[in-house]
Amino acid sequence: MADNKDMETRSWVRQGLRAVAVGVLEIVLSVFNVPLLVFWLVALALTPAAGIGMFALPLMTKVLRARTDLVRRLATGAGVVIARPYAPQPQPALTGGWRRFKWILTDPATWRDVAWLLPGGIIGAALGVLILLLPAYGLQGIILLPLWLHLGDVWYGYGVYWPIENFSEGLLSLPQGALFLAAGLIVAPQLRKVDALFAKLFLAPTRAAELRLRVAHLTVTRADTVDAQAAELRRIERDLHDGAQARLVSLGMTIGLAEELLDRDPAAARKLLAEAREASGIALVELRHLVRGIHPPVLAERGLDGAVRALAISMSMPVEVDIDLPGRPQTPVESAAYFVIAEALTNVVRHSGAQTAAVTIVYHDGTLAVVVLDDGHGGADPGKGTGLRGMERRLAAFDGTMTLSSPPGGPTVVTLELPCVLSSPKTSPSSATD
User: Fold this and answer.
1) Which of 149, 155, 244, 321 could disulfide-link 160, Cβ–Cβ 3.0 to 4.6 Å?
2) Residue 340's CB: how many other CB atoms inside 10 A?
3) Do 116 and 33 touch, CB atoms closer than 8 A?
4) How many domains is the chain partitioned into structurally?
5) Beta-carbon neighbour count of residue 89 at 10 Å?
6) Measured between alpha carbons, how far is 384 from 340 in angstroms, rounded to an integer?
7) In this structure, are residues 411 and 356 in contact, taking their beta carbons and an 8 Å threshold?
8) Mean pLDDT for the stretch of residues 163-192
9) Would you state the pLDDT for residue 327?
10) Cβ of 7: how many Cβ atoms within 10 Å?
């Protein structure tokens, strides 16, 4: 419990410092919103003038979208997801040209970006100042005590009387400064979230854009699912061909040889039969491993709760499990959740250097939420390996999402969300089996 509290304390301090850093960044970036708005409008106004805007407007729009994309990334860090709403660009993607110019001006997301620049800059700068001032005021209160004591020593050395009220004021500044610093670090992420929610009013996709993104997402996930299914079938075929099938063929040949030797060399025949029995045992073990890779029996018999607890026990480190499920998800969703949790725990064991881990599973408002936490060194990156990307693809087939938080030094938190419907405990497969 003490370790968990220490991890939580480090986590909110780290989040507060990150929010303060982002607030300072927003103050700086907001200064450029007004010049960016002016340059974009000038590029638009120059369109009739010998077509200068046909080339200037796409360039300024690229800069504008880079600015709003940065806002979306920062909003994601604050816990507010803002999808990228832009329509697909025409092909070929030229720097200028009428098609590209038309694509920019007919996309509602362009005008929403432009509309955000002025109010977004004002709100971002104002909230950034608030985020910075509160912890800065607390920090100066903490620094004030040693400053007062130092000044007292200096004046006393010159024989100058230093009023006791100055010392008492310095002593009071320490707890007051610590309180303001802690309050600033707690409030900073909430203010960042307010800024992100305001940006979402302008920069989130419209209804039409959401439908377009939904179609594109379904197209990609369908292709990924088909590819993953084909790869899984090839893996099963390869494992059967190279493993159990080869052993069964060898087993048949061994039994055939034993039959030939049974009359003229019974001792050799018995030896071959013993080898055949051993080979059959090995083939059976390989088949069981193969079946577990397709759908673990413990998952079918005991559900996600029992399967994850059994998985946690098999890990080489302590894994705390907290599960609150009033029923069972559909079998495909249950299987996907299990294999993603298994992959996440495998990554913890192999790469994190963690001493402990925890798995939390809850169901709320039609969503199965899973959190896998470890106290390792952090620094996990989906771009550096196929494991995390494979987890994302497996979840995407069910409209699930994965969020990764893994700052250097840890902790690493993997959050999985799967929309699903639970069966009642009375009608769940495990209950029927019991």
Assistant:
1) 155
2) 22
3) no
4) 3
5) 14
6) 18
7) no
8) 72
9) 84
10) 17
Q: Under 8 Å CB-to-CB from 206, ≥6 apart: which residues?
A: 85, 108, 109, 112
Domain boundary among 271, 294, 317: 294
More confident residue, 305 or 247: 305
Helix axes 52-77, 108-157, angle to 10 degrees: 60
What 3-state class would DSSP assign to 114? helix
Question: In angstroms, rounded to a whole number, what is the distance separating the alpha carbons of residues 151 and 166?
Answer: 10
Q: Kindly state the tokens that stand for 61.
A: 């729009």
Structural tokens at position 343: 């992959």
Range of the domain at 91: 2-203
CA 188 to chain centre: 21
217, 141: one domain = no
Residue 23 in this model has a pLDDT that exceeds 70? yes
- Cβ neighbors of 382 (< 8 A, separation 6 or more) are 388, 389, 392, 404
What are the helix (H) ranges across 240-382? 245-261, 266-294, 297-314, 331-347
List the one residue out of 213, 141, 207, 143 whose CA is nearest residue 176: 141
Token output for 107: 């996309």
